[in-house]
């Protein structure tokens, strides 16, 4: 079994190397940003060639050769392992708390998309990634309540490094017999909230149009100039 697996991996990696070499010889070298991926691919190719040659040296000791051939597979599986570990961390229950209720008060006449982004990573570090986004739509001048599940509640109150609350204005438009909602980019405004602030029974999110960002206001002016903001509020 070890011999068969060793030979199979050796053949598969050799075929991949052959295909990759032909690809790099035939396709012209790209320029600009694409050249970064091109160079990175060559580095991976050289690394795979080194693994294959090193494994071939252990032809008589196939256990060591198989272990060497498993190294590229570990690199391929590493993102999946990290993702699985992060999902397990997010799911694993913490201290039992009362259900968290979000109160969203829209003080504008706009249809607003409210997004709560749960960011994972070190609180004081730079390596942070977006794990999940909770999304709610708030109608003009409406006040809504949303009771969160235990899973979503613990994401906001303990599991995340921090939570980013983002507001997007949405325009209801129609064309070619279809009605749709268009989200204006960039966002109206956003703020980062510490997870400790969500360790309550009720959390208020107030939408105030007077706090819109400069970038959003600039985009609105551009859309008005191009007559693309006919249903907008601001």
Provide structural commentary:
The protein has about 230 residues and is of the alpha+beta class. Helices cover about 45% and strands about 25% of the residues. The chain has five helices and eight strands; from the N terminus they run αααββββαββββα. The strands form two sheets. Strands 2, 3, 5, 6 and 7 form a five-stranded antiparallel sheet that branches. The chain is flat, with a radius of gyration of 26 Å.
Quick recap:
This protein has 234 residues and is α+β, with helices and mostly antiparallel strands.
List its salient traits.
about 230 residues; alpha+beta; 2 domains; 5-stranded antiparallel β-sheet; 3-stranded mixed β-sheet; 5 helices; about 45% helix; flat
Blueprint of the fold:
Blueprint: H1 2-26, H2 34-57, H3 62-91, E1 101-106, E2 111-121, E3 128-138, E4 143-147, H4 150-159, E5 162-175, E6 178-183, E7 189-193, E8 202-207, H5 214-225
Parallel strand pairs: 1-8
Antiparallel strand pairs: 1-4, 2-3, 2-5, 5-6, 5-7
Shape descriptor reads flat
- The beta-strand count equals 8
Low-confidence stretches: none
Output the structural class: alpha+beta
CA(first)-CA(last) distance = 69 Å
Number of helices: 5
Helix content: 40-55%
Number of domains: 2
Quaternary form: single chain
The overall average pLDDT, rounded, is 86
């Amino acid at each position: 079994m070890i011999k068969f697996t060793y030979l199979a991996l050796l053949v598969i990696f050799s075929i991949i190397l052959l295909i990759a070499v032909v690809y790099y010889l035939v396709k012209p070298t790209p320029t600009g940003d694409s050249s970064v991926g091109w160079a990175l691919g060559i580095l991976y190719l050289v690394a795979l060639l080194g693994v294959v040659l090193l494994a071939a040296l252990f032809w008589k000791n196939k256990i060591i050769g198989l272990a060497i051939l498993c190294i590229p597979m570990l690199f391929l599986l590493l993102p999946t392992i990290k993702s699985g570990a992060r999902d397990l961390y997010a799911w694993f229950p913490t201290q039992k708390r009362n259900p968290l209720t979000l109160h969203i008060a829209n003080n504008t006449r706009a249809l607003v998309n409210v997004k709560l982004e749960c960011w994972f990573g070190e609180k004081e570090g730079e390596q942070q990634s977006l794990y999940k986004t909770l999304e709610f739509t708030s109608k003009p001048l409406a006040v809504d309540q949303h009771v969160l599940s235990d899973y979503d509640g613990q994401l906001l109150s303990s599991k995340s490094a921090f939570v980013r609350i983002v507001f997007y204005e949405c325009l209801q438009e129609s064309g070619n017999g279809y009605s749709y909602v268009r989200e204006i980019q960039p966002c109206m405004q956003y703020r980062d909230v510490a997870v400790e602030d969500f360790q309550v029974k009720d959390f208020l999110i107030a939408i105030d149009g007077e706090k819109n960002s400069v970038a959003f206001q600039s985009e609105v002016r551009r859309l008005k100039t191009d007559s693309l903001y006919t249903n907008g509020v601001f």
